[in-house]
Amino acid sequence: MAHRFMRLGPDPDDKPTQPVTRDMLLRVARTFTPHWRKGLVVLGAIAASAVLGVFPPLLTRSIIDEAIIPGDTTLLNWLVVAMIVVSVAGGLVGVGLTYLNTTIGQSIVFDLRTQLYGTLRRQGMRFFTHAKAGELVSRLSSDVSGIEGVVTSTVSQVLSNVLTVGTTLAVMIALDWKLTMVSLAVLPLFIVPTRRVGKIRRELAKRRQRRVAALSGIVTETLGVSGAQLIKTFGRDAYEIDRFAGVSDDLRQVQIRESMVGRWFFMTIQTFWAAAPAVVWLAGGHQVIGGTLSIGDVIAFTALQGRLFMPINQILTVHIEVQSALALFERIFEYLDLQPDVVERINALEHDSPIGRFAFEEVSFAYRADLPVLQDVSFEVAPGTMTALVGPSGAGKSTIAALVSRLYDPDGGVITLDAIDLRDLTLASVANAVGVVAQDTFLFHATLRENLLYARPEASEDEMISAATAAQIHDFVDALPEGYDTVVGERGYRLSGGEKQRVAIARAILKDPRVLVLDEATSALDTRSERLIQDAVARLLEGRTAIVIAHRLSTILAADQILVVDAGRIIERGRHADLLTKGGLYARLYREQFGGEPLAEVLA
Questions:
Q1: Edge-to-edge strand ranges of the sheet holding 545-549
Q2: pLDDT tens digits, 24-41
């Protein structure tokens, strides 16, 4: 059945390709710097290969002129042996060269991929909330893999071809400089078209990689568990197949055009190379007949000409390939140059034994400059106490929780832990001090054991079981056929919502943080599980600071202070009974949840 493909619209990233700059080339060259010692060995091997390559034509010339024609069989035997030795030596050098090239190339690809992943991991949450997962995957896999051929073979190929052309030209000129000039007369005509073809290929390579990223994005979104379920429940399988086919067709069209660019031009070059020996035979043949050149010289010259044209053709072709690779380098460098919005200051403080006193001092924050989320928020959380954040959706509660764990930095004001600005602490100190149980529980596609120990890999088996028991999940896990070695599936999809949430709470308990942030941590639990978790959390919170976000007000009745957040501001604060007495937003929210009980009965 034919599809009417849904193609991509105009790509906003399809900007004119910038000219290749000296800085760009130097930066690419610096990726080879750590491997310069092996590079010197490669250079030596290339030089040896280039020198060995000119011997066969010269030996052929000697075999004809000095052995066969004069009838010297002894010299013939030695020259044939020499030709075999040179061929074997050239083969051995070629094998070693391939190994070194592959080693260097794979090492550079490894370095770039590792650096790129490290750069992405250091980005703040602001970056990840705007980036597409498929785009990131594409840059890490497709873009980096795309330059593999260049760094593995192209650079050494260029050097090899340059040395080959140099040594071959030297020998050809020594044989007959006039024939050499005839052979090279047409070469300048091919240089300008080659540069033009290279520029077009570079533009198409960038466009191809953007289409690959778009395709990767669709695959990432639609073949994951959550995306697959959404598509199934809305009956949109045909739509998604058509969308995938459309983007895939766009990619196909770009790849066809990229592969065809310059093909007529290179066909012309190859035709010229094929016809060039005829010119040499014509001019050289007349010299042989005239007695000014030997037949061996002409045969050697023809062989050398073939050895000259092949590397020149490869140099012209490799210019095209390098232009395509530069487009990939540009995309990789674009991400390597990203600066995280949350950075660790120089000489940041290690805070290994936090007390857990948190304070917000006139904190303001916005995800976008024109849409403030928090405005002049101030409060303090004493060690060992529970502070609850309540209010309507979108009021800023989760943003406060994100700022506590320094997923973002405030735009204004100061957030302190034990009277130290969070920005003056190492990121590791903040991460170790603060534990988070989020509303949207994330579990890796791994075993329960691996998911729990992610919080503290060095924890013992007893500590892990103790944490699971405190979170009321151990009995459930122990009853599974594979126990803690049960694989939970992508995002923990083989577990129920309540089971996932309890695993996440057990993970936080195992981490044993001084400050605990519970962002709707009991939202996925049934009434019985919620009571069990509340008991476990009550034991966990002893001596710790807790910041709890909950729409279920029943979970925070015992909080030491309740902050009512609305439109990015704290409009009420106090304990449960005090806020009910005030009759403000908190009292209204409470009555809505508990069926409008009379206030006197609520306070009783």
A1: 434-437, 515-519, 545-549, 386-390, 561-566, 569-574
A2: 778 888 888 888 888 888
Bridge partners (DSSP) listed for residue 379: 360
Measuring CA to CA, how many Å separate 494 from each of 447, 448, 569? 11, 11, 39
Radius of gyration from C-alpha coordinates of the chain: 36
Is 410 in contact with 365 (CB distance < 8 Å)?
yes
What's at 521, amino acid-wise?
A
| Lookup: tokens for 533 | 């978790």
CA–CA distance, 61 with 64 (Å, rounded to integer)? 5
Residue that is written with structure tokens 């943003």 in the block: 399
Distance CA 211, CA 70 (A): 66
Q: How far apart (Å, rounded) are the C-alpha atoms in residues 163 and 157?
A: 10
Phi-psi region of 599 (alpha: psi -120 to 50; beta: other; left: phi over 0): alpha
Structure tokens at 201: 């290929």
- The model carries a pTM of 0.71
Cβ atoms within 10 A of the Cβ of 164, count?
Answer: 23
pLDDT, tens digit, 9 for 90 and up, residues 485-523: 988 877 777 887 778 888 888 888 888 888 988 876 555
Q: Which helix (H) or strand (E) holds 98?
A: helix 73-121
The answer to whether residues 38 and 96 touch, using CB atoms and an 8 Å cutoff, is: no
Q: Is 432 left (phi over 0), alpha (psi -120 to 50) or beta?
A: alpha
The Cβ of residue 30 has, within 10 Å, a number of other Cβ atoms equal to 9
Candidates 476, 468, 475; CA nearest to 510 is 468
Question: Domains along the chain?
Answer: 26-336 (1.20.1560.10), 358-440+515-603 (3.40.50.300)
Please, where are the H alpha helices in 234-350? 237-260, 263-290, 295-336
Angle at 585 between CA 580 and CA 589, to 5 degrees: 75
Q: Which two tokens stand for residue 342?
A: 């949350």
